[in-house]
Write a structure and sequence with these properties.
The chain is α+β, with helices and mostly antiparallel strands. The protein is built from eleven helices and 16 strands. A hairpin with a 3-residue loop joins strand 1 and strand 2 (12-15).
Length: 379
């Protein structure tokens, strides 16, 4: 098929561009906040550039190379962005690209457009795989891919270059047999948020909010956190913390991850730690990660965090398995998992890259049916 049909969504209409859209394209795409390394949008956007670009769309669609849609508001007809499917990789695989005008960020428009476009592609073409990528300095685009239901598959180091500087890229995909994402899991119900916050004795475990950014920044900067976790950069700035907390909040809405902050004394007390599980609902499995402020280590707080999260995961959430990965040299984490009945299941060689070095990881697992050497309140 070479056509670009009009695709309606709840709030949007995806349609082919026309020459009358050129001024809006130049205005919206020309905003330097919109152009990203992966988009190849010129800055400043030249006069006549939008007209030239729009004039190529019919030929690219006719040659079955790329289909490009204007994203417009259904209520007003206003152009707000662009979304496309590039099939240069063959008939069965397409790469999705998109941009959204800055005034329209934060309303879920692009996730809505992406879901509808993937629906159309899987139902009406030979495409069985849709992939997308974003640069590591654009985590907001990654959150769109997660909301759509795509899975992260790879991080390609130095895959993009901007101003002669290399930038890594993160790659996501969804395949036809896994579409649409499972609709039998309601995020609010499946995460059992109504049973939070959860008391562990001295701590309260609760979901993060955007008001926790400064507290999480302090936690990320705590001694030993960078050394123990592959996902934390050295000397993380406040923007990193903001992006991480935003990702925690978004993941709860999607239902694929639950991060709980450990607060001392009461739910609004000082944040001294964080524990989270990334969830694969199809397999009732959760990947466990945690960190604790250096000032509170060695006092049993990590034990309380782990027991509280395990109780919530195996109890109300109904998970079957928790797994965790630790560096072999992280003796404290290894001892914590061992004490709580986790089985060391193997060694993943070169599993993580940190400062250009590939590091091994010990793999640990705990099943809901395994004996646990501590009492869990699972109700």
């Amino acid at each position: 098929m070479t056509s670009r049909p009009v695709i309606p969504t709840d709030r949007l209409i995806l349609r082919p561009f026309n020459a009358g859209d050129a001024a809006d394209v130049q205005r919206l795409a020309g905003d330097e906040r919109v152009g990203r390394p992966e988009l190849d949008i010129p800055h400043p956007y030249p006069d006549g550039g939008a007209e030239t670009w729009i004039a190529t769309h019919d030929q690219m669609a006719a040659e079955n190379k790329e289909r490009i849609w204007a994203v417009t508001q259904a209520s007003s007809g206003d152009l707000i962005g662009c979304i496309s499917l590039n099939r240069s990789g063959g008939d069965h695989c397409a790469e999705m690209g998109y941009w959204l005008g800055a005034p329209f960020w934060g309303h879920g428009y692009m996730a809505e457009a992406g879901c509808s476009l993937i629906d159309w592609a899987f139902l009406n073409t030979k495409i069985i795989r849709v992939q997308a990528m974003h640069s590591t300095d654009n985590p907001a685009s990654g959150r769109v891919m997660q909301k759509i239901g795509m899975r992260q598959e790879a991080v390609m180091r130095h895959n993009l270059h901007v101003n002669d500087q290399p930038i890594d890229s993160v790659h996501y995909a969804v395949i036809k047999e896994h579409w649409p994402p499972s609709s039998d899991v309601d995020p609010t119900e499946s995460l059992c948020l109504e049973q939070l916050p959860r008391s562990t004795g001295r701590l309260w475990l609760r979901p993060a909010t955007m008001s926790d950014v400064e507290a999480m920044h302090h936690l990320f900067c705590s001694p030993g956190v960078y050394e123990g976790l592959a996902s934390i950069p050295k000397d993380p700035d406040l923007q990193f913390a903001n992006d991480r907390v935003q990702g925690m909040c978004d993941a709860i809405q999607i239902g694929n991850r639950l991060n709980l902050l450990a607060c001392l004394g009461d739910p609004q007390g000082p944040v001294i730690g964080e524990i989270g599980i990334g969830i694969r609902w199809r397999h009732r499995m959760g990947g466990l990660g945690y960190l604790l402020d250096a000032d509170y280590r060695g006092r049993g707080y990590a034990t309380e965090m782990l027991r509280g999260m395990a109780g919530h995961a195996f109890g109300p959430m109904g998970l079957n398995r928790l797994h965790a990965a630790t560096y072999p040299g992280n003796k404290a984490s290894c001892q914590l998992l061992d004490r709580h009945g986790f089985t060391q299941e193997g060694l993943s060689r070169g599993a993580y890259c940190k400062e250009g070095q590939y590091l091994d990881a010990l793999e640990w697992g705990l099943l809901a049916t395994d004996p646990r050497p501590w009492a869990i309140d699972e109700h």
